[in-house]
Design a protein that fits this description.
By secondary structure, this protein is an all-alpha fold. 51% of the residues lie in helices and 0% in strands. It has five helices and no strands. Helix 3 runs antiparallel to helix 4 (107-136). The termini are far apart.
Amino acid sequence: MGGRRPRRSPAIADGMRCMMSEFDRDGFEEVPIGDSELPPVPPEFEDAASAPPMPADTGGPLSISSEERGWAIGAHASAFLTFVVPIPGISILAPLIIWLMKKDTMPYVDYHGKEAVNFNISFFIWFIVALIVGLALFLVGAFLTIPIVGITWFVLVIIGAVKASNGEYYRYPFTIRLVN
């Protein structure tokens, strides 16, 4: 069943050529913007001096410097050092060190550092609880509870780092607030 490829009719081919000719070489159509498409500016706001004041800084993504974002991402992502450095508690110590270094000078890092420290302390506690429950269920439960806690921790750390990168204030679920 080799079959032949159907041929396009000349009308379809001409129509495709016509559509392609409407675009520039980059594939985008140039559309001039006329003055009539823009809403008129009220006369009282024509010069910048008479414009109403801008709203106060709301702490949105644009008001956070890239340095602060970097430290905030580090506060979350440093918990992954637990896979690289075989020191017990490194997933708590690394965010704690970043938070202690930057809490007084960078409010955004202060918030995210506290969240990361509280989250990692909480999940250490949840891991111990999962281990006890798993052992109480004769190791069968350990094969269920410990991976669930571990995968949840892993995913939530990534979400926290991404939210910090986007300039958002993220609050971890399942977290005991020990550091204020």
